[in-house]
Amino acid sequence: MAKPTKQASKKAPKAKKKTKPPAKNRAPETTHEEVRYIKYLIDNQIPIRVRLTDNEDVEGTIEYYDASFIRLTRTDAPNLFIFKHDIKYLYEIPE
Fold first, then answer.
1. Which pLDDT score, from 0 to 100, does residue 49 have?
2. pLDDT for 17-50, tens place per residue?
3. Which of 14, 34, 60, 84 could share a disulfide with 74, CB 3.0–4.6 Å?
4. Rounded to whole angstroms, what are the CA distances from 67 to 12, 13, 16, 61, 93?
5. Which are the contacts of 92, defined by CB distance < 8 A and separation ≥ 6?
6. Residues 35/41, Cβ–Cβ less than 8 Å
7. CB-CB contact of 37 with 46 (8 Å)
8. For residue 8, is pLDDT > 80?
9. Cα gap 64→92, rounded to integer Å
10. What's 22's DSSP letter?
11. Which CATH class is domain 32-95?
12. Per-residue pLDDT tens for 54-74?
């Protein structure tokens, strides 16, 4: 009977691979509903009220939007470019 060599005794046992469970369906990161809603507001020229993060309210209609801001057109005051990160929420003004 032969003695085991030092190299053979140093081999570590193979670790079992852990398999990941199947991924669950997650909600999408973006739904693009914001774009659709803002486009609806622009096309129909619906008057809105925007509440800013400092709790100031401004009213007007959205004329243009971008990934980072909206342009609010007002009749009684100068037009505004409002950054989206400064908007708390906006809503349609009931007529």
1. 96
2. 677 766 678 877 778 888 899 999 999 999 999 9
3. 60
4. 55, 54, 47, 18, 24
5. 41, 46, 47, 48
6. no
7. no
8. no
9. 16
10. P
11. mainly beta
12. 999 999 999 999 989 999 999
**Ranges of each domain in the chain:** 32-95
Which helix (H) or strand (E) covers residue 73, if one does? strand 69-73
pTM greater than 0.90: no
Q: What is the DSSP string of 23-63?
A: PPP---S---HHHHHHHHHHHTT--EEEEETTS-EEEEEEE
Structure tokens at 64: 């243009």
Q: What 3-state class would DSSP assign to 85?
A: helix
